[in-house]
Amino acid sequence: MKTNRMKYLAFLLVASLVAVTSCSENDSRAGVNIGQYKWLALYQSRQVWDGHQNNMSMALNEDDDKDTTFTVNTSLYMNQKADQDCKAELVVDSDSLAKAINLSSSGGLYACYTHSVLMPKNAYSLSSGDIVLKAGEKKSDAVTVTIHRDQLLTDPIRNDISDVTFVLPLSLRNSSVYKINDKVSTLMLFVTMPALDPTQPDKTTPPKELDGMKLVWDDEFNGTGNPDDTKWHFETGFQRNHEDQWYQKDNAYLDGKGACVIEGRKERVQNPNYQAGSSDWKKNREYAEYTSASMQSKYTYKYGKVIVRAKIPTASGSWPAIWQVGNTWEWPLGGEIDILESYPSNGQPAIHANYCWGSDWRWSGNWQSVVKPLSYFTDQDKDWVKKYHVWTLDWNESTLKISVDGELINEISTSKTFNGSGGGAPSGGYQNPFSNDVSNFGDLIWLNLALGGDNGGKIDDSAFPMRYYIDYVRVYQ
Questions:
Q1: Among 30, 43, 280, 330, which residue's beta carbon has the most beta carbons within 10 A?
Q2: What are 308's strand-pairing partners?
Q3: Beta carbons within 8 Å of 54's beta carbon, 6+ residues apart
Q4: How far apart are the first and last CA of the chain?
Q5: What are the distances in angstroms from CA 286 to CA 179, 243, 273, 290, 449?
Q6: DSSP label of 237
Q7: What pLDDT score does 391 carry?
Q8: Distance of CA 169 to CAs 2, 16, 17, 407, Å?
Q9: What whole-number distance in Å separates Cα of residue 323 and Cα of residue 11?
Q10: Dihedrals φ, ψ of 15, to 5°?
């Protein structure tokens, strides 16, 4: 059924910051000469005035981002004809809104302002800042107000205030002829927002600043096709941990809804490196029975905040990950940070957060790991696996912290993360991969969906295709 846009227009009883000394349309003035009260008002404000409030509300839905327009006019008390031209200014009265917001904690008529903010300038436009009532007319020419829904739907404040209401307060000022009727000279347009759907990508624009840091790199995964290959490198073939998938670029794609999908598929791919009887597991398999994708950022960084919003597959055999490795020394001397890994522990699905650095044995690391059974999360929210979640790494010279949805999971002091000798590695021994002054040292960010292998568990063939959704990757410094 096609939705009528006017369905979203409704009138609310909300507080209006107007004076109470002037007359309104509801006054009983028997025997009074109406001509004495040629007072100017906003026509739309008069329409909704009930003696206390004169405001309008519009509700948005997530899928409707087209502009909405409405018109405002001026008129005189009791629809009298103007006896001369009258021009007034139509202004956005932010001061009045600020006063109402300050009074919201007192409740009553002002309670509706509790989560209200001034509509940002990029979200509306006026066809004119002047409005003219011509002599002989009962209603002025119209000023068109355009609300840019897309700007409101993508405003990052929605992540900070889940039930935010944007308010556009329009008021008359500086009438050239007639006195302004303060009771009906203001119209406050309330625009209510839909709740963000935790099962869908977040369409809001990333904040340019967060916790005193600036956004320095991100991928919002908007559009269609493959992910941006100026930002990502894609692995090919068998790679590590005796995993069963063959990595290929085409298994990562943008879904057109704001997410990157890494898709695990049950499909046979011939191994071009096959050598019968080879002792190398990457070569002694003639075929791969599964495919997936693995992406490494071409961007590297040291210290800051990484935020990844993702929805993970939890079927048996799936092994989604968000991780980082250093770019200077061989593993594990360059360090590894597993912001997320999901694979079984003690036979049960689990979420892992790990730090790894070098030991005295080559290619063997020291680990600090935290394992949370998946049931830890699903006991709190039975729909946890259906939703996107926010994984965060906070990294500075002295500490690293991994969090999920704001809950701290694993924290470590860099005083504990000095490498051992490295067991004969050419460099990196006794260095600290998480706190150092080495020139050009940094971590790259890794997104992948592994299948089976050493940790993933028995693969559930009935669960294909397995899809790992990444909404965004953001780096702040």
A1: 43
A2: 391, 473
A3: 16, 18, 45, 46, 48, 183, 184, 186, 187, 188
A4: 47
A5: 89, 14, 8, 13, 22
A6: B
A7: 98
A8: 31, 10, 10, 39
A9: 50
A10: -70, 140
